[in-house]
Amino acid sequence: MPANRPRASFEPIAPDFDLRELVETTENFQYVDRISCETIEEQGLENFEKLILLHVIIGGKPLVVDGWEDRLDPWTFTPKWLRDNHGDKVENARNLHNKDSLTLTVGHYLNYMGKLTDQYWEKPDNYKDKQRQRSYLKDIDCPPVWQEKLKEHIPASLFYWNDSTGEVGGPGAIDEPLPNGAGRRKGKGVASAGDLMSSLPMEMRAENLMCYIGHEGTYTPAHREMCASLGQNIMVNASESFGENGQPEKPGSSIWFMTESKDRHTVAEYWLSVLGHDIEIEDHFAQVVAWQKAPFKVYVVEQKAGDFILIPPLAPHQVWNRGTRTMKVAWNRTTVETLELAMNEALPNARLVCRDEQYKNKAIIYYTLLKYSGLLKTARMQANRSEWEARAIHSSKKVRQVQKDFKRLFKLYKNILLSESFALGTKETCEFLAFDSNVTCAYCRGNIFNRFLSCKTCMDMLNTGTDEPYDVCMDCFAMGRSCACQSKYKWVEQFKWKELVARYDEWRQQIIDMDGGLMATTPQSLEEEREIYTKKTTAVVCQEQLKLRPWVDVKQPKPESEEDEEEIQVDDNGQVKKTIKKKSKSWLENNKSCHVCLKKHPKWMMANCTMCERGWCYGSLWRAHDLMPQTVMEDPNWECPHCRRVCSTGACRKDKRQKPYEPKGTLLGHDTKKVADVRSVEALIDFGRSNLSWLKDATNGGAPESSARIEKKRLEAEMAKLHEPSLDEHYADEDEGIVLDDGRGEIEYSPVDDMIDPALGGGGQSMWRPESQLDDSMLNVMSGANGFDAPENGVYPEPDYPNDGHMAPAAMMYQPADGLMMDGTPTFAGSSRKRPRPGDEEQIKLVSSKKRKTEEDRPLPKNKASKQYQTAQENKRLEEAKKAGRFIQVLASIRGRKKIVKLKVIKEKLADFAIKEARRAKAQQPGAQADASQNMVLQSDIAPPKTFGAAPVKINGKKASNKVVRIRVEEDKDFTTRERSDRRKPGVSQNKPRFEEIEVESDFDEDFEGDIVGGETSQQRKEARRSSWLARKRAPGDEDLPDELPADFRDGDANPRREELRAKGKERRATMPARPPLGLKAPKLKPARASTGGVNENGEARGRGRPPKTKVDPVAMAKAAMLEDENRRAKIEAAGIIGDDSVSGSESDSFKSAEDGAQEKEPEKVKAVPTKGGLADRATKGGPADRLGKKVKIVGVKKSGPGPGKSSYKPAAAVVISTDASSDDESTEGEIAPGPNVRKGPPGRRTLPTVGAK
């Protein structure tokens, strides 16, 4: 399991942090060297490219090029331009406080950056709150306009996807067609590409031109650039004291903590052993005090607008954003040097932690060789045409650099083919799959170039409906990573092997032609290289492992075999005394004991020594001796640690001939199975376990940062720094013997007056003295400053002495690492006065782990006395435990052991556990959400996807319940979509009732719309009326279909055949016979309109109604709405829904007198009695008023039953029945509210009002 140990916590940086004081008072802090962009124009691009090569790529130190803010377009690189042109673009902002993403638009994020920043300035200690919202808009696509603008100013060799650094019309140039017109133009000369990613076809390239927009408190954890590439980062905009709209803002900048490439191993071990994090995981932002205590040099820079930072390969660094706004553009470049680092170091490290390989390094090597081969062929053809062209091509430094890069790439290509070569004399049937650069390993997620292994047995285990074979790279399979099948893999290749070998022979012949014949360094043919290769290739290792590993049928798992045999012992009386379990003979034959862990493992999981008969499990070899499985497997004559006299087991430590091996580095362990394919297993090694039990905790002086492992790596880094960065045989300058110290093309650092970093004082030029001018006293002082003895040759890098007139070469101008002040005091270069902080030294804050400690995590005794004391204490506890009858429990606690007991639990009990757990989680969820929402300043402006059904609405803190009503739908023979022919089967009844479920919302939504909290209630009511039958009718994937008819479904746009249907309807009605008169019609209801009760707190109308012209009293409007609604309900019931059986005797007499034609002087008042069935169960015709042919109007309302605030109420209305036709126009106590929208149907069919309508 991963190590359970204290880890360094995240500690935010204060907004008023004084960076200058920090650098001046910290011994190992130094400002990053910087030059001005104007110096590049003055000294030439060629010298600048040489500076980048020696200082950044080979030297491994960061560099800043400032002054770009005056050259960039001031109108384009602004938040206003970004908001106007890309404000509606949806992106995912990274919430750093809770490690999730927030979907929003770019414009919405830009509008809230001020509020996100102000939360850290409201109180002095607000920045310490780690749960405050930190939303970082990172890794978003760069606008194309920004890309074009940057391309105009950034040097072409450093820009994104640069395909050639040659000059137009240079040596080897050929004519090329115009991109946007007819004709041809002069192309660029033969030269290497600035970014080898451009060699890939366009569809295979990785797009890494990204934008980063952040506010105060956002950060990027400590990390290294992917695949050892070169990082470029330029800040295009930063907030100032006032924004574009005149609002005050906090000045924006970014603080970078950077290291050298040569210190990368020291940084990695410091991160693991002291901070408790892995630099490869990229999940920890180191504290400032952690950088202060680091045993390596830390380069610091405050990046402001116009600063262009160049990041060396494999150099760890982290960034902290300050102020209201910082806007940066970043991209990565791949060169020959970075490809070598990637193949040898970056990719193996990334494979171990399963980090994505997005740059397709092996494919870049292959396609770059194709490209360079074509360029060299073209140059050779032109050289053969004339002597002048031959002289120009042979003297061109760029052409010769392409040749040298071609040789270095060919060496990498040779290693790729050797690793994929099968054993000599064997043939494997390989399935062919055309290369498209999209095949990745199912475990490590690395890109696969050619050959790999594929399992077709478990391809349908994911239950996705499609067959997905398990593809694993050869390196992971050799490490023991695979699917649960473990064996019976099929070989797959993406290139024909003959094609790759033919390319190898062709490019090898080109190298021979370049050299003028066979040389000592000329590569051999692939067959000869394979014969002289002393180790087994990765493909051969996989071939052998496929034969050794057993196959497991995951579809039909076999029951556990009876590995134990019971031996029954009886006493003298023949009774069973005890039963002893023994392993079967077959099990003992197939398993072997490990020399280290003493556990028996299957023999195919063991490494056997060729000198002795000892067996070693791969887990012990990895954690105790730093030996990967493929390292052991590829060595045909492997000797075990015991035979090499470095065994570290307890028994071998007593042997004086053995010198126990101590691991070189710390392994915390990572559970990579969470990242890999769900079908993945680790058959040989559990890489999630740490090696802490094998490490010694001895430190120099007790400080963890001065442990022996860190000190050893620091000394190795210092020795590597002694080698002066220079151009070796891999670069064209050495061939011509170019003099580098002639003073021409000198690159100086920015002047003191123009420096942003104040610690770059002492002049803009670096002083350098040749080694012949160094005396012994100076070397002794430097030895004391560096902490190690000077080498015999006396060569040290960049001593800072007074100069005697000798200037540094153009490409070697960088600040010295260590040096002397005028008084002889040792100091770091770039720091004027370092004042240590006595007394108040801050410590690194750690977070202790609360997980249970295991036996391997227990600290080992420091010495023999401590071990004796610990043993005595344990024996005392065991003696007391024997007396108390708890010996087994105490012994298991001391040893860190546990016994797993399987108990059978009935399903009902398990169901109860699940229900209780769900209730507990539900009870805790609202509080957690409330705590998290307190500090949420920015929320998404993107509407969440629609879900069927409306969520209950909270009204005054209470939840309004929605009811589902089942309504019977009767068969309508006149208006049916079925065929009218009778297709009934004899004896089968067709009169089955049909029902429809309608979700009806609470009465609160109708009558008290203004009291509903949060949002438009009209839309909620609209969603509440959706039919559940429609939800059941939908198929999966139909979420985007409409839920109901649109509001304008009668318009021409929604119904293009409206006029045609209307014409057909008129013709049909003209041919229909006239219906007999049915007497007087029921009172005609007015069309529905928006309720006047839907007003907000300002008296303005809401929803679908038109807002009133004058401001009214909301309370009066609400009362009027209630009165109108009650009048409407009462009028409808009185007009056509009250039946004959509901009328009282006096009312029947009045009806009869009305039929006799009696004239009444005053209208009779009839009370309408509410019926049980409600609106849905009453017909709209046939009521008493309909039979009498009289008009009905409301003259008063008296509310009965529960009032507002309940789910329902029953109004009682006083109804006036009159034969006066003018009564329709007379007004009553309030304007009569319209009735509900009624769905009209044919005669004789019941009609239902629209539930919830107004």
TrEMBL record:
Signal peptide: none annotated. Residues 167-350 form the JmjC domain. It comes from the Eukaryota. The keyword Cytoplasm does not apply. Pfam families: JmjC, zf-4CXXC_R1. SMART domains: JmjC. Residues 170-190, 822-882, 966-1114, 1135-1254 are annotated as: Disordered. Gene3D superfamilies: Cupin. It is found in: Nucleus. Residues 967-985, 1047-1070, 1149-1167 have a biased composition (Basic and acidic residues). This is JmjC domain-containing protein. It comes from Tothia fuscella.
